[in-house]
Design a protein that fits this description.
Elements lengths: L9 H15 L3 E12 L5 E6 L4 E6 L1 H4 L11 E11 L4 E11 L4 H15 L17 E6 L4 H13 L4 E6 L7 H15 L4 E6 L13 H9 L4 E5 L7 H5 L2 E2 L3 H8 L5 H32 L5 H44 L7 H36 L1 H6 L4 E3 L17 E5 L4 E8 L7 E2 L1
Parallel strand pairs: 3-5, 6-7, 6-8, 8-9, 9-10
Antiparallel strand pairs: 1-2, 1-4, 2-3, 4-5, 11-12, 12-13, 13-14
């Protein structure tokens, strides 16, 4: 259940609605008149089924539509075996039709309906009356015509799926006026002999007249009286007979009847096959649904020639607009250029009268530069002379010397010296080591 306070998207709502519909409404038969019939390029067939009071949209995918033995037309009365579903992208209720057959084919259908209703009222179709099939049958009885292709299909299926199982044929007519009595006697014989675990009643497909023997009451009564469980495999998937209703199990085809009978033996492979079938069906359904969406989109497609013509007209219009815009821009820029040229001509400087003045100023500038250069040279010479006067080497050249103690410190005060101390003398040319003999603050120290 969904919390009513929870907010969900439309796509999630449609998905839940589709799942709910398909879960609550299994495959069922629906009768109605075909209308709004459309065949898509993908092979899918779209139509509506209607009656006097309502209608429903239907889709029959290509794989199913190809099996219809007649051409569908609007106004036809049909019966559809369909799954109630929802086309999620558009939120449309629709029936996914699996099987389609004509409805109301005269006297035989009326007789079929009357007998079906009477037998059903007696409880002959009740599920609780039907017998349980043998899961692992060792002998399978087959009621069919020896010349029938359906018999060969059944025997081939049994040999392929359970080759160790014995098949016993109870030959009978399967078509004609006496076929019903023959089938009933074959059922009674199989029960008297009691040599098999279950019976298959099989016949290939055909018209309602061809299959009428299996709609006779005598056959239905014989099946009900049988102590052996019976599988009905009469006709194709779209064919339904009274035998199918009273039998303990109905198979879509004779081959399907053989497959049901051997299902227990073939269960391991059957499970794998079922998984593969389910996957294949899901893929085909997904592809079919996508193709259905593509069909919907294709209805809104515009022909390429129309699209090109529209684009060509729009291109011509844009080209015309572009030419007008470019001409306006060029005209505007030409006007601005003309005005700028006139302004430039008026603003041009008059240099003829100023050339003489410029020459005089240039002469004065050169003279001032030379004067400043001479002043800088004289100042530089004076600074050089002062530096020479302060140069220590000049003092050494006049007979002075520099005295340093053993640590290299400059000695400027005799009081810092002691007798016997060694000092270094630096002269204008070379140096010497000396020892202090005596020192006095009033007299020069005496060194040796």
């Amino acid at each position: 259940m969904i919390d009513p306070a929870t907010v969900i998207s439309i796509s999630e709502l449609n998905r839940l609605a589709r799942q709910s519909l398909e879960r609550e409404f299994p495959l069922l038969w629906v009768a109605g008149e075909i209308s709004n019939l459309t065949r898509a390029a993908s092979g899918h067939v779209y139509f509506s089924l209607k009656d006097e009071a309502a209608q429903a949209r239907c889709v029959m995918f290509r794989s199913r539509a190809q099996s219809i033995p007649w051409r569908l037309e609007n106004g036809q009365q049909v019966e559809a075996r369909a799954l109630a579903s929802l086309y999620e992208p558009r939120g449309d209720f629709q029936l996914n039709v699996e099987v389609l057959r004509r409805a109301g084919q005269g006297r035989l259908f009326e007789a079929f309906a009357r007998l079906k209703a009477r037998l059903e009222a007696e409880g002959l179709f009740a599920t609780e009356r039907k017998r349980t099939l043998a899961i692992y049958p060792r002998r399978i009885g087959i009621i069919s015509s020896p010349q029938a292709a359906a018999l060969r299909d059944v025997l081939a299926a049994i040999r392929r799926r359970a080759p160790h199982v014995t098949s016993i044929l109870y030959p009978t007519l399967v078509q004609g006026d006496s076929a019903a009595d023959n089938v009933a006697r074959a059922i009674e014989m199989a029960n008297r002999r009691d040599e098999c675990d279950l019976l298959l009643i099989v016949r290939g497909g055909g018209s309602i007249e061809d299959l009428w023997a299996f709609n006779e009451e005598v056959v239905a009564r014989a099946i009900v009286a049988s102590t052996l469980p019976i599988i009905s495999g009469v006709g194709h998937e779209t064919d339904t007979t009274i035998t199918d209703y009273v039998a303990d199990m109905r198979a879509a085809t004779p081959t399907a009847a053989a497959e049901i009978a051997t299902q227990g033996w073939h269960e391991g492979i059957g499970k794998i096959a079922a998984i593969g079938t389910a996957l294949d069906r899901a893929v085909r359904y997904r592809i079919a649904r996508q193709q259905q969406g593509l069909d919907q989109f294709s209805l809104r497609l515009i022909h390429p020639a129309t699209r090109l013509a529209r684009a060509r007209d729009r291109l011509a219009l844009l080209g015309s607009q572009l030419d007008v815009s470019l001409n306006q821009q060029l005209r505007h820029h030409r006007e601005r250029l003309t005005i700028a040229a006139l302004d430039l001509t008026r603003a041009a400087p008059r240099t003829e009268r100023r050339r003489g003045r410029i020459g005089i100023l240039a002469h004065r500038l050169r003279a001032a530069i030379r004067g400043q250069q001479q002043l800088r040279i004289n100042a530089l010479d004076n600074s050089a002379a002062a530096l020479d006067h302060l140069n220590p080497e000049a003092a050494l050249a006049r007979g002075f010397s520099i005295v340093r103690d053993a640590s290299g410190h400059l000695v400027t005060d005799a009081a810092s010296l002691q007798a016997g101390q060694t000092v270094s003398l630096y002269l204008a040319h070379g140096g010497a080591e000396a020892r202090i003999l005596t020192c006095s603050a009033k007299h020069q120290p005496i060194a040796t």
